[in-house]
Amino acid sequence: MGFAGKRMLVAGAGVSGVAVAQILQKKGARVTLQDTKTLDELGDRVKSLQQQGIKLALGQQNEILVSDFDYIVVSPGISIYSPLVLAAEQQGVEVISEVEVAYRLCPAPILAITGTNGKTTTTTLVGEMAKTTGKRVVVGGNIGKALSLEVEDVTDKDLVVAEISSFQLEGARTFRPVVAAVLNVTPDHLDRHKTMGNYMAMKSRIFTNQSSQDYVVANYDDPLVREMMNKAVSQVVYFSRKTELAQGVFLKGDMITIAWKGKTYPVCSIHTLRIIGSHNVENALAACGVAFFAGVAVSDMAVVLERFEGVEHRIERVATVRQVTYYNDSKATNPESSIKALEAFRGHVILLAGGRDKHTDLTEFMKLVKEKVDCLILIGEAGERFAQAAREQQVEHIGRADSMAAAVQMAHDLAQPHQVVLLSPACASYDMFKNYEERGRVFKELVHKLSS
To answer: Which residues participate in ATP binding (predicted)?
Structure first.
């Protein structure tokens, strides 16, 4: 479906907002970019858009008449509960996301992955596996560049692998991947989605528009994901780390195995994986499921899995200093993700946690901290609530630091040979950093200074 001649309001001048505004303008749409920030705050990246023929509606005082537009395109940072979106819906103006625009402009089949945790690792794995088919493969979405930019030049002979967040699915109306994956669903972003039911409904949009010819790869071990699959029209392919399934992707002993329509395909032993932790076994199982239905040979899946060293900011080994190994897990922006990280180690961990509080339940997280962590060092706005939750679980050694530099120095001073120092915040980063990537990079720079 084309957008030529359509009046498009793009809400939010972040990375994806600017990208989709540029793409729509190239496709012949009449584009206005709206943001509550001023031109001075947004800088040169947005100033240059005016020369491209894109109108700007910036600043708090700018009143937008939504009825002047055919579509409102919302960036991931704009909630569907925002006044602009609610006004558009009341007046019958269609509200879509940047990912929806990308889908409507994309002639290539899409493999799409969502879930609370594990999205980036699984998406990257699927991308590497898909490349073995000889097709041109584009990877984007919630990883790397905006999806609308990534699909700009693709053809129907190519393959698109997309990491999709719940925010991006809010405005997904017709989005239909040929293979979708739902990795897991745990409480996250409830400040935005309000209820767990709303959050699950948004995640479900990744497969809502699929047909019986499409596939959805889903986590059998997650009861909420299984509940979501009751609404699937597409063919449900389960993966499981805990159960040997009659059909799907599972472990037969220590062997990753695919069973489909009476045939069984051994892939590789989990002991050949370089990525650590049981959660990464689940990511590998899911990736094999998606890749199988994208036509990837099982032998090629095995080669990719045995070579894959993981992605940045996910239990990433940084350095060993004085016989203490430092790991960067800055992508752990919720307790469930940090639980997965802690489970990857036998114990004797010095844990750096805290940041922008999402007000999620900390009980299970702090029980594991009590079991595995020798010292908990807290940073950021969530520090006091995390400290209280830790004390409730009888965690004894709790430190506070007012900066990442102070936290790393404290960990360095405390650490004994063969302990592990792990940054796994269980929180968002926005109180101290631009994003989790910046948080991880700062941590790594500080660790490398220790080693030098």
So the answer is: 115-121
